[in-house]
Amino acid sequence: MNAPSSPTPDTVYELSDAGRQQLKGGTTALFSDALRFLILADGKLSLGQIAKQLADVPEAILGRTVVDLQQKGFIQPVVSAAPEASVDLSSLDFSSYVPPDPAAAKAQGEKDLAARQQEAQSTMALMKEQGYAVRIARQARSAAKPSSGGAYSVLVVEDEPALSSTVRKFLELERFAPRVAANRDQMVAELRKPPLPDLILLDGMLPGTSGFEILQRLRSHPALKAIPVIMVTAMSAREDVMRALAADANGYITKPFKLDVLKKSIKAVLGIG
After folding, report:
1. Which of 59, 103, 166, 206 is the most buried (most CB within 10 A)?
2. Are the CB atoms for 180 and 153 separated by under 8 Å?
């Protein structure tokens, strides 16, 4: 395989199927900076534009990251379309032009409009079905040991009662030891109960605060910073995912999600799957 070309600021990158799998496959061994680059590599932004959004990543590291992602087949440069050949107008004969029938032109126009509307509806339905779905779980380097010596403890921070109950029951069936909190105060109370949880499932929007703020506080606390955190949220904008990864989230799952995806992500982050 040919070595990837050196990245230049004007190069535009897009994801390969393998790259999309890193964002939607449930597990990944990539580091945060590489994941953030994948999220931004949309086939439209140039490397220079992406670098501005990743201003916290040193230029040399970003360059090595891009080369590494290319070598692994996760991204590829967008190939500009070949310039169109000039049109030969020498044989154009205006004398043979016949204006279309107004009634036929109107009918064709209505038909084209209907086709465009149908295409738009199909596109919207596909976007609603697929959305900007993210299922990232960074694979642990080694298996974590349960803090209690028994089942792995998972703290579910979710303010929607039905979802919280569903996840708690599912975790129990999967032989985890779930604990639940619906807001920041309840979460703090749970963290004060020994032992600390082995993993936190953190909603992005909570009463009076945001999961992103809580994540940042966790990462700055000496006793809590090592607890793995998976963001589980309806917030699916690229900026949200970037913000979570920049704050060292171990995973990011957008709602709605399937419970088997959640299980796979939990096991990957704990290094037991």
Report:
1. 206
2. no
